[in-house]
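Why show two proteins at once? Because comparison is the fastest way to build intuition. When a single record is shown, students tend to memorize it. When two are placed side by side, the eye starts asking what differs. So, the first record is below.
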Amino acid sequence: MSAGAAAAKAQLFAVLGARAGRAWFVPGRIELLGKHTDYAGGRSLLCAVERGFCVAATPRRDRRVQLTDARTGESAEFTIGELLTANWARYPATVARRLAVDGKLDYGSDILFASDLPPAAGMSSSSAFVVATYLALCGEAGPEGREALAAYLAATEVGVGTHGGSEDHTAILCCKAGRWSQYRFCPTRLEQTVAAPEDMALVIGVSGVAASKAGAAQADYNRAAAATAQILSTWNEVSGRHDATLAAAVAAGAYEPLLAQLPNALRARLEQFHNESDVWIPAAAFAAREGDWQSFGEFVACSQAGAEAALGNQIPETVALAASARRLGAVAASAFGAGFGGSVWALVPGGAAAAFRAAWQREYQKAFAAHAVESLFFESAAGPAALQIELEG
């Protein structure tokens, strides 16, 4: 981590009050590219963010799990296997229930946590909470490794009602500090990593519009996922094949035939998926590796435009943030995450990051004064994946 981020984490662990034993830092993630691609077998370009959950756990001798937010004092308690449907506790309860069904959990824990990751901001706070709960209850991944654990926890999170993929959990568990990681999904495999540019900084603009994958926004999020399933079903029906993902169908030659027969909305979604996964991400990663930041910015702009035109998950605030960042001198800028709210990342020369962040924040809060209090602007390096921390004294 950068020195400032490490100092902030030390303060969070101090808030927990735990003085010995095992603890964890579990980050959020930044999706540089890969808008709604993972659950369809596509690619994503990812890094961990330096904000996240600090967690400490004490095993219990019964089947109760108690969680306490050390910053707010809010707490929740449930029995392993109990089904909860309301408030933030449904995420850890869903994890514990799945672990119990799979025979992986017999005893509970008292779990303290503190987070500096903005909630419902597109940085996967819910998935980070899921990963943090697993690590607090079970410790490190088993012999199958962290990529397999990411897929397992993504399937577990479906129990909350979100029909997504494992991009978030993979980034949280597997990304490397100082690197951008290109993953392909279904199954999960690392294709390449690219060194994050040392002379540039990522600045994050949180719009202040909640990007929750649960509650009222869940239907919108799941609608984007359902479109890919509809396209795949059409292909398998007309081709007589049984491809498991849209990516597999495209690889089998589905793209051109489907463009000729799909209705406009589904055709636009197919084009966006193919371009994002098979064209823009590999090209952007190559440009970053070569230090060709003009081309990198152009591919990122294509991705943002594709989301605005085809995914239907952008809102005026995120569209304005991306456009404003480019106008203020960002090399590249894009909304990320599930959409329907959330955040935008901007890549800027490191020496100009502080001035850029202030100008970006000022311009956004002037244009969207109603979100001034909830919005947040900060810098982050490409941080480490989930880390076990040994607390001493």
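Second record. Ask yourself what differs from the first in the token line.
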Amino acid sequence: MAHDLATTETTNDVAGDAHGPAKGPAAHGHSTVTPGKVAMWLFLATEIMFFTGLIGTYIVLRMGSPPTGYSNIFPPAAPEAAE
């Protein structure tokens, strides 16, 4: 008898309730993907790739150059003699 009672009860889930079927994005179990969301995620992904490339290039070039290769390019100017 308990089995029969459990099978006849209705639950309020995303499929609907006693007032009718559910409507909107929750009815299918996923949210709506708008063109604006896709564009923003695409923009963020391209920015991440761009700045990762810039920072990675800087690190590779900086670590690959000899220590004297960038420290003595422009030595400080000699002070002028006071007259």
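One difference worth noting in the second protein: The radius of gyration is 33 Å.
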